[in-house]
Amino acid sequence: MRDRLKPAGETRGTDVLQRMRADIISCALKPGAKLRFEGLREMYAVSFSTLREALSRLVAEGLVIAEDQRGFVVAPVSIDDLNDLTYVRVLVERECIALAIKHGNDDWEADIIGAFHRMDRLQSRLGSNYYLSAEWAKLHGDFHFSLVAACGSPNLLEIRQKLFERAHRYRRMSSQFRPQWRDKDVEHKMILDSVIARDAAKAQELIERHIRETTENVIKHAGHLFVAADEERHSRAAHVAAE
Amino acid sequence: MRDRLKPAGETRGTDVLQRMRADIISCALKPGAKLRFEGLREMYAVSFSTLREALSRLVAEGLVIAEDQRGFVVAPVSIDDLNDLTYVRVLVERECIALAIKHGNDDWEADIIGAFHRMDRLQSRLGSNYYLSAEWAKLHGDFHFSLVAACGSPNLLEIRQKLFERAHRYRRMSSQFRPQWRDKDVEHKMILDSVIARDAAKAQELIERHIRETTENVIKHAGHLFVAADEERHSRAAHVAAE
DNA sequence: TGGTTTGATTTTTTCGAAAATCAGCATAGT
DNA sequence: ACTATGCTGATTTTCGAAAAAATCAAACCA
Description:
three-stranded antiparallel β-sheet, mainly alpha, homodimer, Arc Repressor Mutant, subunit A, 243 residues, globular
């Protein structure tokens, strides 16, 4: 089941990278955990070098931290990190969405509406626990990307994407400790409308609030985990693969 | 001469990464050039895996581009890329400097003045061709970093640093085709003064102009190289190590 | 001629063994 | 008792050979 067909021209290292990224975001690999090669080699069924390459790439994405001569560690989570991440995300997303509204054409609008629809439909189908679904998370990511896709700046979009994925790990962490998510779909619809109406200032305002409120919720519901995860790293950073 | 003493705890891969980054920025490895392993292995005297790791990390910095199953290529240069880079840099640097002015303390100010002094002195010593010196480039980078060092956002600083280095390659390219640099030291002094005076709006304005004017100069003096470099990639992307 | 297949060659990617380094523990010296 | 030193086992890092994939060119057919 793990050995699904490789998309044409995809390298094994790239495949491991993606699986590992997913595992870090889903916290199957816990924040702060030591990443020992022997364990990972079994877990992902690849060699040292391939593993090392994937790890190096994850370091660049900020999901893994490397210390020369003493291996790799899953990037720890902390309130400071989350706040900084939020700060930068607000800056970048505001810029992206303003640019997209300026440059976007009809196709761009159509893609947004389509992405929203897909996300909305799956949400209805899944019921109140939609936010635990990996598939919904994917569509949610697609929707947010569609909003800024027409931004026209490859560099800004790339930066945005990396930040989004790091934030995703925090959202994911909190979603497990939260009885009910707030009405995000209402917010999404409002953002959608403001974008289609080409009201840049309003879209910026809404997206900023969307990001900030999510962060507040994460801290409220999962903040207690952060310190624990960090302590774990210092005490017994052990057996990751087993869990 | 190449095998200088390794700083304690530094890994061979990290060492290669740094040498390669320097070579790409200095265009010893030309934009768009195919990076063949056999050649690089001789050039840097390391094994395939180590090389591969360094390359992967450079991909993350945007200095190298990887295509699965068909190797690595030095990131090409183009006017579009430079313009986009400039756009994002203006956004990021403006934010950084405003934050630094807000949060910086006396030590921060002292570091800036020190960094400017070092740069200024070397500049006088080197005379009119200062901008060709690698050492001056280093101090120039240090000065610009010192301006924003107190910004307080690790994420923003990291993004800034990567963008700065990519832009550095463009500056470097143009510097070889330019008879005389403009009076950057005057601009630097003005930025310095506005920062010490804690005039955020002015500092933002000056740094933006500094970046934009540099870009304009690069395009004017080196723009003709960009297309050529790109064509080269398509036609005969050959022997890099030899040159 | 134009386009496709085949096979040899080059280049990239993967592998696991070997070397280097680190962390923990015991021993010796002050 | 306390720091320094040297061992031992665990872990990371490096290596180059072997496997996989792409490229190039000649041969082939329509």
